[in-house]
Structure to design on (311 residues):
């Protein structure tokens, strides 16, 4: 059975989550290039990258973003998320093939937006196996409020 | 004879306020499933497009225009807003505009505003990308010219 989805009302500022790790492989990078169509030499040309400051291919920054998103879902009970609102993100260091990354997140703020929903801002930090920050940012999620106030209820959950 | 010349679009080639509009891509269930496997997020409604998927497709769309790829040294940051959801079957394309071009010692910073637009002309997502872009190495520095700061 899927874990219960948490309403906006139940989420507390300061809650912290820490994900398991995931090793980023060459296959991940190739798949992401295929999915996105971004074949930049940074990610796909090993010979060219030997001469770069990185010395080897690096993962697409957006691949790191996708992986942390998946990792975090494994570290927390799902929110009753209505939609993804916004993202403010910094790519601080490269992710190389063989690096193992994980994500730490914290509920930064909560804001009521409408009667039936509110905003939850998560601060997320993506770290590698050496504890170095590779990516960091904030995501705003629009989360359903508990139907009918404090009593729970059974509204149709949204995707 | 030159064996192969990889054309790249360097910092000097970037036109401030230049607009780039890409061809479209139709969103399919294959995209949804590939993304689910890659990101490791369980797919939800099979007809709905994960919120960040159009963002991930936006970078590749920029490779399908008659202009060499930007000589990106590093992708520095991103601000992104999801305005409305996309569905399987929607055809999206991107429109980008360079809003900042700032020379640095090693390359230059380029900030692009980018929108993802569907087949009805509605904006689904929009935001700003910040890149560090290489300068054309072969170009000798011009004495007295200093840094060619175009916009802060």
């Amino acid at each position: 059975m899927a874990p219960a989805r948490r309403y906006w009302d139940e989420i507390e500022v300061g809650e912290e989550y820490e994900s398991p790790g995931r090793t980023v492989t060459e296959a991940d990078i190739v798949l992401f290039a295929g999915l996105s169509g971004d074949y930049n030499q940074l990610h796909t040309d090993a010979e060219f990258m030997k001469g770069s400051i990185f010395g080897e291919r690096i993962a697409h920054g957006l691949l790191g973003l996708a992986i942390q998103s998946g990792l975090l879902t494994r570290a927390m009970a799902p929110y009753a998320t209505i939609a993804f609102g916004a993202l403010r993100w910094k790519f601080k260091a490269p992710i190389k093939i063989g690096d193992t990354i994980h994500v730490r997140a914290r509920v930064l703020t909560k804001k009521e937006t409408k009667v039936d929903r509110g905003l939850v801002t998560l601060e997320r930090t993506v770290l590698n196996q050496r504890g170095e920050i590779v990516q960091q940012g904030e995501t705003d999620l629009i989360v359903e409020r508990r139907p009918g106030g404090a009593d729970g209820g059974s509204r149709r959950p949204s995707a | 004879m030159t064996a192969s010349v990889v054309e790249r679009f360097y910092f000097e080639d970037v036109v401030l306020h230049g607009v780039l509009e890409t061809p479209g891509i139709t969103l399919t269930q294959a995209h949804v499933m590939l993304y689910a496997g890659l990101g490791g997020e369980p797919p939800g409604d099979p007809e709905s497009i994960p919120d960040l998927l159009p963002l991930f497709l936006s970078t590749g769309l920029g490779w399908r225009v008659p202009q060499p790829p930007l000589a990106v040294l590093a992708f520095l940051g991103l601000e992104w807003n999801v305005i409305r959801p996309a569905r399987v079957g929607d055809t999206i394309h991107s429109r980008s505009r360079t809003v900042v071009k700032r020379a640095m010692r090693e390359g230059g910073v380029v900030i692009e505003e980018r929108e993802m637009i569907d087949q009805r002309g509605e904006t689904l997502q929009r935001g700003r990308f910040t890149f560090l872009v290489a300068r054309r190495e072969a170009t000798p520095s011009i004495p007295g010219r200093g840094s060619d700061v175009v916009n802060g």
About this structure: Residues 8-151 of chain A form a domain with the Thiol Ester Dehydrase; Chain A fold (CATH 3.10.129.10).
